[in-house]
Structure formats: C-alpha cells, structure tokens
Fold each of these.
Amino acid sequence: MIKKQLFSPGPTPVPERVLLAMAGPMMHHRDPGYEVLFQEVREGLKYVFQTKQEVLVLASSGTGAMEAAVCNTLSRGDEVLVVRGGKFGERWGEICEAYGVNVTPLDVTWGQAVDPGLIKKALDAKPAIKAVLVQASETSTGVMHPIKEIADIVKNRAGTILIVDAISALGVSDLPMDQWGIDVVVSGSQKALMLPPGLAFIALSAKAWGFAEKANLPKFYFNLKEELAVAQKNQSQFTPAISLIVGLREALKMLKEEGLENVFKRHALLARATREAAKALGLELLAPTAPSDALTAIKAPEGVDGKKLKKNFEDQFGLIIAGGQSQLKGKIIRIAHIGYFQSLDIIQAVSTLELVLKGLGYPVKLGAGVKVAEEILSAA
Amino acid sequence: MIKKQLFSPGPTPVPERVLLAMAGPMMHHRDPGYEVLFQEVREGLKYVFQTKQEVLVLASSGTGAMEAAVCNTLSRGDEVLVVRGGKFGERWGEICEAYGVNVTPLDVTWGQAVDPGLIKKALDAKPAIKAVLVQASETSTGVMHPIKEIADIVKNRAGTILIVDAISALGVSDLPMDQWGIDVVVSGSQKALMLPPGLAFIALSAKAWGFAEKANLPKFYFNLKEELAVAQKNQSQFTPAISLIVGLREALKMLKEEGLENVFKRHALLARATREAAKALGLELLAPTAPSDALTAIKAPEGVDGKKLKKNFEDQFGLIIAGGQSQLKGKIIRIAHIGYFQSLDIIQAVSTLELVLKGLGYPVKLGAGVKVAEEILSAA
C-alpha cells in the first residue's frame, strides 16, 4: 500500500472540506443563491489580493489570465521588458510575441532573482517600454523576485505598468497589490488557493485599466472590460466553472479563518524548515539567496540522477514532487509547501528525501534533516 | 422543503457517480495514472464526436473553444458567413469581429432554422467566404439547424470550411463529424456530457487543419496546433482542469454504456413528450418546425409574463428552467432535457408547467399535458 500525496507546486492538495463542497449537486449561475455565493467569493478574493480593485475570475488555467494581462493592456508593436529567469518568465515573452508585442528580454540565471537596478537601467534606456512583466515566485526555479523594489521603480512612470504573475506567490508571501502599486496581478486556483486547476484570477490597478482603454490587441473570451462590467453584478460573461467557484468560497473561508498573516507565516516556516533540512543533508539549494516560500528547489547531488530521485519519491513513498524543467531537467527536484500543508507534511517530505537519497547510495545520515526541521518547527 | 432541480440547458444535472469521481483526492497531470485516464478520455471523446480526429480538451467554457475555432483557422480580413438565428449565432459574429474577420450575416428569424439554399446562394455570391459558422442546436431558441444539408454544400468547396457550435447538440442528436464532413466541431462540458462547466472541446477535420497552417490570427492559450502535439502524448499545454477531466472519464463511460444511439433516442423521446405535452396544454412552441432535442422553448401564453412563469417554476417547485434571452426576454421559457434526464423528469417538468400556469390564472386542464407525455413515453 502506498498513499499518494501531492508535494508538487501545482496542482496542490485540495482540503477535504473543499472537495465535499464541490461534490454537491450542480447549481445554476443565474440563480439568486449563486449571486450571493459569488459576492462572497469576490470579497474573499479582494482580501487575498489585498486590493480594492475587482478581482476577475476566468474559467481557464493561469496561463489564460497571463494572456488576458497582455491582450487587455497592450497593443501591437508595443515595447515590453520581460524578466526571463525561468520557464514562466519565458512564457511571458512567448505570449507577447504571439501578439506582435516587442520583447526586450532581461535574462537572469535560473535560480537567481532579478536585480531591480537592471530593470531601472532598461527602462531608462528605452523609455517607450509600456510594461514590465515578471513572476513574483518563478515556479520553475523556486525563486522569489523582488516585486516591491520593482514596483517602486515602475509606479512613478506614467507610461509603464508592472504585470506580475503571482500564480505561485499569491496566498504564500505578502504581496499587497494596492500598497506596493502593482498594476496587474495574475493567479490560478491550483496553488495556495487549494483548489483543482481550472480557475484563473486577474486584478488591474486604475493605471492598468487606463492602459486597457487604449489596448488594441484582439480578445473576446478574455475581454476584461466586459468581464468587469458583469462581475460587479455578480455575473460572468460566459458560463463560469461553477463547481470550482463553490470550492473557492470554501477555500477562501479557510484562508480568512487562518488570517492572511498567519498563512504567510506558515508558508515561511515550512519553507525554511525544508531548506535548512536539505542543507543539513549536505544538499545545495538552487535558489539560496532569494527562495520562494512556495517550493524548495534542491540540486540533485553529484552522481545522483534527479529524475531517478523524483521517481523514487513517488514509487517508494507515494510523494509526488516535481523535477526540473527545460535546462534544469534531471538536475533538480522541487518540493512544494504551497497551500494545504502543515508542519508534519514537511517532516514526511524531508524523511522521504533522506530515505530516497540513502537508497540511491548517497551518503546521508538518516534523521539529520528531520532533526533540523523539527528544531525549526519546535522553535516557532 | 423544496428540492432544487436543474432543467436548464446548461448547466445540466451532474450524475452522482460523476460527482463522486470528482470528489477524490487531487491527482497530478504528469502522473502516469493521469496519462492512462487521459488516453481513455481521448478515446471516449472520439466516440462521442464520431471522429477519427483528435478531440482537444481546453480548460475554458464553450465560448473559449468557439474563439479557438476562429483564431486557429482564419486570418485578419478573411470573409465568413455567420448564421444568426439566436444569441449564440450572434456570438459567432462578435468573435469574428473582435479579430478583424469580415462577417456576412445570414439573419434567420429567432425560432426558425436556416434554409440551406440561402447558404448556397451566399457562397455562390461571395466565393471568397472561407468559413460558414453556425450552431447545430441554437440554445437560445431551441432550434436545430440542418447541419447535414449545410455540410453537403460546404464540403466540396476547397476554400471554405464549416464550423459548427455543437455545444448543446453533441451527445443529443446524431452529428457524425467525419461522415457528414463537418470541419470544426465545438462543444462544452456542462450539457449532454453531464459535467460541471469548465471544459471545452474542439475537433478539426484534415481540411480545417490545412486552414490552420495558414491562419495568422494571434493566439497562445488557444493555440490548437500546439495542443494537438501534446494531446497525442496524453498531455496538455497548460495545467488541465484535472478534477473535471476525472469526471469526464466517468461521464463518457456512462454514454458508452448506454450507447450513443440510445442516448439520441432517449433525448428524442423526452423532447417529443415535452413538446406534445406543451401543445396539449394549448401552448405554442417557439420552434415548431425544427426543434432541438436538447431543450423545448415554449411561448408564454397571451397575458402570462414569461419571467413570472420561470420564477414560479423555481420558487414554488424548485425547478430551475431558463427564460428568454435578448429579444425573447420575458416571452418564452426553455425547459431542458439534455444530459442526465429520464422520462420521469419530463413528467415533473410538464406537471410543474400545468400547476404554475394554473396558479397564474391561465385556463389549463390539470393532467392534460402529463397524459399526452405518458402516452408518448408508454408507446416507446
């Protein structure tokens, strides 16, 4: 018998009460009961996004909302600056290019955070740049980019907006959209919101809505101006993913009950315990200086195949973690602690790491990582 | 106590075994178990679409797949013919216009089917027309358009494809994509596929894939060529709506168990019983000559407010039906029998119709509609 458990940075485990809520009979999205539910969801999303703006809900994966961010704020031939420090940074560039938006890439070594000074330099060199596109947490490397510092650079430039992919950052680390002056925040359901995939979220600042007035890229399903108009009446343009929205209400309740600040503290603690445990086992982190609290990327040690490591996590202990993508294939493993995770989950992950490494012949002192993790959890 | 029951043409009731399947713990879409599941789903979709082509699965509502049909087969400035006989016909036009595709509308009185002869005439008059866009079942009016006859006109024109919105027709009436030579078929999850909303489906003929090679409209999330490449490896470009796909496997199993031919017969029977019962009550059908078997649109009788009729269905008996949209607001009610419906469900709907009409002072002979419905069901 092997219990399968998700330790992947999306999809993440869905709490039982959310699963139960979604298992109820289908309701109709034009029903008064649904409008009450959606009103509650809208309030909850504003709380999690830390914004007074409307948070729009799309029936799509997170990438749909990334595309919506681009095609609703930009026009053909516009110049943008794209921070490319991982697979999802590259995706920003690919979306822009698909729409004929000119990309100036700012390439960052995978595993490192972008230097905000380079963003300032790029904007000074090319004042025509209309948007800076970046990840908050780059899921492919486990890096947290310095969003506050970047927002400080962008917010006083009238002709430039900051578009942030917060798919694996929202509900993990503090990212106060309004306070920091982020113009577009994008997220998805299958991360810290503890839901199945299938919903995406996007909020725009007043400045970004101004850009939306002039943006001429074609759009229909992802037309945010139209969506905004109906969302404020607790409706949606097209049939919403009703069951997921029913689950969303439950997940948002859970986050509200815990309190956003405690949610951030929990993620920070679990992330720190995971990182320190890995280091105690003599392992190297991919992102030692700017780690995301959503997941921990660990380099496969010399002589150990990262793919085999990932496979043994699942085959021997049922833990589904992630491997490396693109240039990092086979070189890292990624252990998630985003969403429905508590301290003992981390102990399981660290214990599995020890057991699997030992099984692969890597010289590991059993219990050494767990000890460090327990010390951190115990002190907290 | 009022049991709420969906009699709306989307969302439709979700069978208990599908709800249970979706309530299981979240799985990972890169897991070998998911690949087996998705392989099964792909086979099942080909069976329901009656095609050898790949049926692509998108995480979006049906409108997303409609947009995908347009932006993957057409280019800016292309000419298309759009059959506009209801709200969803209008939507085809709106999507094309959003992308700078030139629409020649073929307006049809709401409640009537398009005359295929007019399509032939329009194509002869403007041979540059690259696509004919039409609904199979127009959900806003309950009309079934003559797709086979339209396909016969389009299929021998090398420069024109037929794009069919089968959102409320697939799994209801026979629509053999390959045999009839339909080029693009679009559908959604929350209709005859008996699932919550959140998935859309699209299949392209070889001819349509040829058009896709030359189409230059921008797309990223809905890029079907990219999706095809990964679908054939049981993967998806972006995180799929996993829980809905788990439910889809169960729903497809149910359709397979019943057999597509029996599914069509069941829908035809329930639709006929509903229509004849309404007529027996002295009511007029909106689409008497070309009714869809997905839903029955009934005109609110003289002196009875359609909105009040719909409201009383729900408030007094818990039946959630649909009203009229746009120009039909307040003028019709729409009772669905698409998806998870059996004969006794129709008896409930007809009985409610009688009771609600009587309550509103309309001279109805109680039991007269039910009698006719029972006679039809009994003879079958």
Amino acid sequence: MPFFSLTQVSRITGGQLSGDPEIRVRGVAPLDTAGPEELSLVAGHRYLSYVHATKAAAVLVSESLSREVPGAVARVVVPDPHVALTQLLPVLYPEPKVEPSVHPTAVLEGGVVLGNRVAIGAYTVVEEGSHLGDDVRIGAHVMISRGCEVGSATVIHPHVTLYPGVRIGARCLVRSGARLGSDGFGHAWMDGQHRKIPQVGGCVIEDDVEIGANTTIDRGSIGDTTVGRGTKIDNLVQIGHNCRLGRHVIIVSQVGISGSTTIDDGAVIGGQVGIVGHITVGAGAKVGAQAGVIGDVAPGSTVSGYPARPHKEAMRASAALQRLPGLMERIGRIERAVFPNKTP
Amino acid sequence: MPFFSLTQVSRITGGQLSGDPEIRVRGVAPLDTAGPEELSLVAGHRYLSYVHATKAAAVLVSESLSREVPGAVARVVVPDPHVALTQLLPVLYPEPKVEPSVHPTAVLEGGVVLGNRVAIGAYTVVEEGSHLGDDVRIGAHVMISRGCEVGSATVIHPHVTLYPGVRIGARCLVRSGARLGSDGFGHAWMDGQHRKIPQVGGCVIEDDVEIGANTTIDRGSIGDTTVGRGTKIDNLVQIGHNCRLGRHVIIVSQVGISGSTTIDDGAVIGGQVGIVGHITVGAGAKVGAQAGVIGDVAPGSTVSGYPARPHKEAMRASAALQRLPGLMERIGRIERAVFPNKTP
Amino acid sequence: MPFFSLTQVSRITGGQLSGDPEIRVRGVAPLDTAGPEELSLVAGHRYLSYVHATKAAAVLVSESLSREVPGAVARVVVPDPHVALTQLLPVLYPEPKVEPSVHPTAVLEGGVVLGNRVAIGAYTVVEEGSHLGDDVRIGAHVMISRGCEVGSATVIHPHVTLYPGVRIGARCLVRSGARLGSDGFGHAWMDGQHRKIPQVGGCVIEDDVEIGANTTIDRGSIGDTTVGRGTKIDNLVQIGHNCRLGRHVIIVSQVGISGSTTIDDGAVIGGQVGIVGHITVGAGAKVGAQAGVIGDVAPGSTVSGYPARPHKEAMRASAALQRLPGLMERIGRIERAVFPNKTP
C-alpha cells in the first residue's frame, strides 16, 4: 500500500490542510486503533474524546468540529468527512482488478446474451434467455434463472438467486445470499387447507440500487414488485409481493414490509421496522428503528413506536409511562383524601 | 400468452358473468396498472376507489363488493376473488414444463435412490443414502446431506441446504436459501466457556408444507423439530430446536420461535413476532405482528403487544398510553385543589 | 446404535446412579416421546409433570429436582443435566468420520495453502492466497474469497460466503448460509443520491466462535469488525460494520446490532433485540428479548423493553400500563367530586 502525503489527501478531498504537509499516511482507521501511518476522522461530537489519545497521523474533520480539536493535531478540514471518505478510500485502497472472463465451470444455457467485458464466477448458472449488460460482474455460485435482465456494470456477489424474469438495472450491487423474485406469501383457504395463489408478477429493480446480504424481495402476485432508482437496502430485509419502493429510499437491516405497500421517494426506514401491507409511507418520511407501522405515514413526518405515531408523541408517552407507577401512588393518596369513607 | 374470453374466465372460476362475454383478456394485473387486455380484481373495500379509473377489461369481485362497482364495469362475480385466482392463474400463466432430468454436473453419492421423473439442477449435491420420491424437482446448487428423505412432487429451489437426515413430505415447496435441520443453539457453561451441546435430534416436515426463502429450521437437540401438514412458513423465519408446529399453521415473515415451543393447528403468527421457548400457542390462536409472546396463548384467542395479551386489552392500554401526558396534567390540577398547602 | 448400561452412563457423566445398573439405553429423547430404550432428562420444574407418564428407561436429573421425581424412576443424578449431555451425546451419537479429502470438483486457486487433514466439499471455491489450517472441514458450495485465513479445526457448513480477507480462528463453527465480511451499509449523500462509502476494513473472528445459519457479519468500513473468543451467535443475526463483540458473548436469533457498537465480555443478548450504533453494552449485561437498546447499558445490568431500561422498571411500567384504563375511570370520578361544577 503506497503512502500519500497530507497535501495529496487535501487535494483528493478538496479539504484545507492544517499541519505538516509532508506527513504521510497509507491507510484510514478509527481514532482509537489508528497507528502513526494512518489517517483517521472525527465523525461527530461523540468522538472528540478520542482525539487526545489517538496515534493517528492526522484527522479528517468538519469545520465546526475542527475548533474543538487540539491545535497540535494535524488535520484536513472538509465539509463532510464521510463524503471525503468516498473520495479518498478508492485511491488508498484500490479494488483489485477483476479480469472480465467467464469461468470454465459456469453453465450458460441457450439464448444467453452477454455484453462486453462480463465476468462470471465459478459454478454460476445462467439459464436460457437471460441478458447480462456490459461490465456486469457475477460472483461464484450465483443462480440467474431463465429470462432475467441484468443492467450494465451491475455487480452480483456469490450465492445470489435471481428467480425467473427478474430485471435489474445498471450499476446495482446485490450482496451474497440475496433472493430476488421469490414467490410471495399468498394463500386462499380452500377444501380445508391453505392453497398457494400462483405468484405470476415480476420483480423490477431500477438503476443504482444496493441490496443487502440474505435479503429477500418477493415477486409480485399479479403485477410487479418494484424498487426505485438509487434505493439502498441493508441485510436480512424482507420486501413482500407487490411492494413499490420509490427512489433514494433507505431501508436498514431486518426491516419487514408486507405486501402491496408503497414507500415513497427518499423515505428512511430504521432497523427492524415492520410495516403492514396495503399502506403508503410518504416521501421523505422517517420511521424509527423497531417501529410497527399499521397505517399510512404522512410525507416528511417522523414516526416511531408501536403502533407508530409522531415521534415526539411517542417519546412523551414513553416517558410518561416510566412515571406511571409513581402516578398510581399519587392517585391513591388523592382518593383517600377525597373519598375518606370508601373502602379501597 | 393466449387470450381468454370472459365466458372462459367465468367457466374456470365458476363465477357469474356480467358484461360482454366476448371481452378477451390475457393476463391479470392490479387495478391501477392493468391495461385493456388484462383482468383485475377488487380485493377489498380499500380498492373500490381504484375501480373508476382502471383500464382493466374486467374485474373479479365478490358478490357483496360487486354492488359498489359501477354498472359499466364488466365483471365476473365469485365467492372469493383470491380463490378464483388459484383457479385462473395456472391457466393464464402455465408454468414452463421442467423436463425431468438430472443435470450432468449434479453429484449423486452412493446409495442415493431416485423416484420416477426426478429433476435435479446443475451443481446440486445429493449425499449418500438420500431418497427422493417421484416427481421431485430440485433446483441448482442445492445441498442434500446424507440420509435425507424428500417426498413425491416436492419442489426445492436453488441454494437450499438440507442437513443430514432431514425428512420432508410430499408436495412441499422449499424456497431458495432455506436451511433445514441446522444445529440448534444450545450450550452449557463449562470450564469457563460456553460448550456446544450436540444436536442429535431430527427435523421432520410433513406433507404440503411451504418454507420461505432464507428461513432457518433447526434440528432437535434430542428428539425432533416437527412441522405439521399444510403449514406455510414465510421468508426469514427462525424455528428453534424441538419446536412442534401443528397443521395448517401460518407463520409470517421474520418470526422467531425459541426452542421447544408448540404451535397448535391452525394458529396464525403475524410478521416479526417473537415467541419464547417451552410454551404452547393454542389451536387457532392469532398472534398480532411484532408481538412478544412470553407465556402460553389460549386456543382461539387473539393476542398482541409486548408482552402479548388479549388484543382488545392491548389496544385499550395502547390508546390510554397516548392520553397519559394529558392525564398527568389533570392529576396535577386535582392535587393542587385537594392538597392546596402541599409543596409540589 | 449400540446400547449403554446405566453404569456406563453414570461413569461418562460422573453422575450417581439410582436404579437397576443393568438398564440399557441407546439414545436420548424428551420425556414425552422417549421409548423404553431411551434415556431422558428433567431439565427444570416445568418438566416434572411429564416424569410420571414417561416411557423412558431412566432420566438424568439434578440433585435438587431428583427429590421430586418418583422413587420408581431410574436415574443418574448429575450437577447439571445439560453439562451431562455434552459428555454423553458424543458417545451415544458418534459423528460420522469425515475422511480428510478435497473433492475433485473443488476449485483451489493459486497460492492457497492447506494444512494437514483438510476436508473440502464438492463445488467449493477457495480463492488465491487463502490459508486453511490443520483439520479444517469445509462443506460443499462454500465460497472462500481471496486472502482469507481459517484456523485449525474450524468447521464451515455448506453455502457459507467468506468475503475477501476474512480471518477466522481455531475451532469455530460457521453454519450454512452465513455471510462474513460483507460490505457494511454506509452512504454519503452527494450530488442528489446516496453514494456508497467504500468498506475497506476487515472481519476478524477469534477462536471457538459459533455463527448461526444465514447470519450476516459486515466487514469494517475502516478498521475491523471483531468477534471475541468463545462468543456464540445464533441464526439470522445482523452484526453491523465495526462492531466489537467481546468474549463469551451470547447473541440469540434475529438480533440486529448497528455499526460501531461494542458488546463487552459475557453479555447475553436475547432474541430479536435491536441495538443502535456507537454505544456500549457492558460486560455481563443481559438484554431481554425484543428490547430496543438506544444507549449504553451498564455492566452486569439487566434491561428490557423499548427503549431498554432496567428490567424491573420495565416490568413495573408494563404492569401499570395494563391498569391504566381503570385508572382513567378513577380519575374521572375524583374530578367529578373535586370540581363538581366543571363541564367535563
């Protein structure tokens, strides 16, 4: 790993250097584990207490936090340290080149169309009629069922399953173990048993979408399940049949969304949230971690708790709940004063 | 995809046609996305508002809802539109024929017994002594460990793992990434560390069971984990060791059931529910989404919340909680009136 | 399966025999399903009611519970029946010998180093530069990406993915479908979209760790995600980037831990718990199932509920909540008495 001077770091990030420009780093690490050849970052107030003891050669820090960092600490002041990381890390840690090639053990059935510079890993299976765009990179042990489409420069990690007819846009990232287009969970009670309703809809993922490890996105029952452009989905998430996710939505780990629910553009859904079916979470809404959403959420609002309601109300109710045992004693005292002759 | 007339639709579903019998459809889609060559359905009151604007050629609708659908809309009136879908979709969307064959890359170890017309996908491994019944269809990349049994006409999707000795009945469906018969989570504290208790029980799945993508069902520690006939399990569910699930149980996505718990026939467990170990959820009980069940649930009852309790109580308590901050102010006013000389 | 006399059972477990020493067993089963050739155990008071009807040949039982078991029941009295199982089950159910061999279909890239007696299953891929220690056993369809290290005697089940550079210690067990070292979920908002922050840290698993089926452990963004020696993680758990788990921690199924959180030695995290990022759960702390932890947890404390707080407080508040509707009626009565002229 080559060294970079702080001058180079400030040039790459567009930041302002304060300290010895000849200081050289060759990696980035958290404040408490960084060594003298590493750069670190101050990501928030919480981390200021680590700055004094850090062995890091220098830090990335925002202008407002920079004032609270001791003067002796070399630094590159940037508008947003996380944005700076997106610029810096690809330079300090260049990804190994993947030679575009199809592993000899890959199984490509008839009618498969490959773009230019496609890489396909060992033991991957691409069934008949699937199309992979230019610069697509498919890992090992991936199953691409018949009639799928994968857009250019999309990366699919090992052990992913695309069910038949799944369509993925360009520049997407699908992490290991994700299952796209699996049958939804729909049954009708007939003749004394639950009978499966055939799931004949599709699963459509637009451009620039990220899908987490072991996440499952069901195909539509009739009509499609859709994920809008730029939406990012974390690990172990469940998206039910016929859900429609808008653009630039964030879905944190272990969220479950029941069938036919719409999540509008820019909404942020916290970890382990559950959302019932057939509702709409409005554009830009924020749903707090572990909330249980059982009705529509207004655009731009912030909700939490179970059942989910405006976050401030939920917090107030939660705080009041803690005081409830004491409240009961107070009410007992009042009753004894007001109804002195009453047997409790 | 061929066309079907409404006359054919009404014959297939046993429904009553109202409108031009010559109208032809070749697919089914939701009201808001259906085109003029597609049939749709009115699945509940919530969807009535979409009927006016739909471009669908006709709708499936129940008798009671049909009265609220404008007279101009062609329709087939059926007792239950979802039941009608189970009849109609296999005709409109016939599944592609899978030729029964064993892919040349599949590894079949010694002593494997295959029934008639078995299909096995690329790179699937079937270890020694496993038995697959007639018409079994196994996808690609499946691992069937030694000594498993798979009943006739059962379908196993890609990337499923059956651990040693798992027994699956007939006509089951196991979706991609499910892990059946994995070691349960059992330890004893010995010599300053958690030591694994060997998990030597089995995992037995009866007929007509459906298991969701990336769901995990642990084998018994001693004795078996069992799933009864006709039970349907959604994606990302965890079933602990020695659980006993009855018949026709519904388990929605992301449910977790701890070890040695019994779920009796016909119970319905909502999404993200957690159930502690060593208890019983009675026959026909309903557990609301996200509930935390920490004790036995009576047969036929409906519970919700954490800790789970009768649903009506939980709703009433939840509503009261919202009024709690206001209640506190009222109590303050009372106290000032009743104890005027008391310092607050 | 050979038979063992109760004399042998008591010798293996170091227990005290009470009953006919010639009784022979050849398996262990729960009280209610055990047959006359099987041993069972009384694992707690809850199971005493099953002892009268059991057909088991004998039981393992602790000294304190033994007094409540009818005298006619043959038994081996041990300090802890679960510890006894760890001694007894490997003898009664010996694991089939796995001949150390590399399956001819396994793909081993250049620079892979294998220790002695390594077993590698069918279709497993080991990328360049990975090192596997002595007695390592890798199942079928496993993906070990470039530059990984797997310590001696570690067992990896089918369909596991190790992302590049993952380091696993000795004697670990990784169950099917686990994803170790996947990219963490980190984005910066730039140019009107969420842009992925490269995840360049590592994923380090120490000795004697157990990782459940379909669990995901993300690599660090910068710096490492670490799991300490002897820690046991159940199925379908999510561990975010840069988490630091201490030693001998227990993480039950479906827990989600957000990025940069520390779980100290010996903590026990119940099923479906959610823990926010950037906090510390102290050594030996216990977090009740389904809790939502939004701040530091003191060492040795027990917390539950959402937001998580000391368990006794949470239980008291929860109990009070149930009485709240009745409380409201009492307050109404008081108000009518204290403010008789006020319109409600």
